[in-house]
Amino acid sequence: MTTKRATNVTLFIAFALVALIMTIAMPERFLRLINLQNMMRNLPEYALLAFGIMLAMTVGGIDLSGVSVLSLSGVVAGMILSRHQELGMGPWMTIILAMSAAIVVAAMCGVINGAIVSIAGVPAIIATLGTNGLYLGIAMGLTGGSGLGNFPLQYIRIANGNVLGIPIPFIVFVVVAILLGFLMERTSLGFQMRMLGASPVAARFSGMNNRVILIKTFVIIAVLAGISAILLTSKVATMRPNFGQQYMLLAVLLSVLGGTNPDGGFSSVLGVSLAILTLQIIATGSTFLGFTPFFRNFLYGVMLLGVMIIQFYRETGQLAGVMRRFRQPFARKKPAAT
Fold this sequence. Notes:
Blueprint: H1 3-25, H2 27-30, H3 33-42, H4 44-58, H5 66-81, H6 84-87, H7 91-118, H8 124-143, H9 153-160, E1 162-163, E2 166-167, H10 168-186, H11 188-198, H12 200-205, H13 210-236, H14 247-257, H15 269-288, H16 293-315, H17 319-327
Antiparallel strand pairs: 1-2
Helix pairs in contact: 1-15, 4-10, 4-13, 4-14, 4-15, 5-7, 5-8, 5-13, 7-8, 7-13, 9-13, 10-11, 11-13, 14-15, 14-16
């Protein structure tokens, strides 16, 4: 069994076990249709950011600006939507204009990130940390730190509507996951991204244009953040520059839990999707149990550290030895021979 398949099987088992535990422990609450719809409606906005982190790690980098790209593109869309009556356009024309503006602004942010990393040669973690502050500052400047509202009712219905009982945001999540899976497994760009992450030198000597690949990757990451902004602003019917700031830790955790190698060269869209579904169930259960969001963030941090430590020992071949030393105190001692 390949490493990717083994990871996906493990994640599927974890997802099934968590879902089964929740079903047995809280059947009257967990299995309610409204609860299942709420889970499907809430996960796409941070799931798309997790997919972005997955792509960044695949090429051997990281993108810490995703939530600020979400904020800036959401603010631009919100500024257009809040003035729909002044623009004198029909509601749907205003919505199309706002959504297009959000995607274009997000793509421009991706080009800037990619250019700084690939052309200027700035490490991705430093470059995107800087642009994270830049994009958030621009969003704050455009709004003065205040919120935007008065959106057309048709726009609000997008993220709050259902198709055959399935929330529209979840349908978007599934479509994006399928497209990303096709990109990573069936296209030359996906192969180039994995090869670049595994060995930039080998990729360059094989004739690949590493700069173009990096810029394309960061543009896709930013567009995912722009789509997330559209879903978020439609769901809550308002926009503030600091929306989504709590999603960065969660996005990194989901990417790593999904089997993405932080050093580059390996990722699984299916694995990250299963991690997203599993963690959403855990988050719902923690809400039912009365855990605060602060405790959940603490739990996410502990989980991320734990996964990284396990991955380190596994990659260095020391995991089996650690497990033997852990089991040793609990092992039964053999009786001495007489």
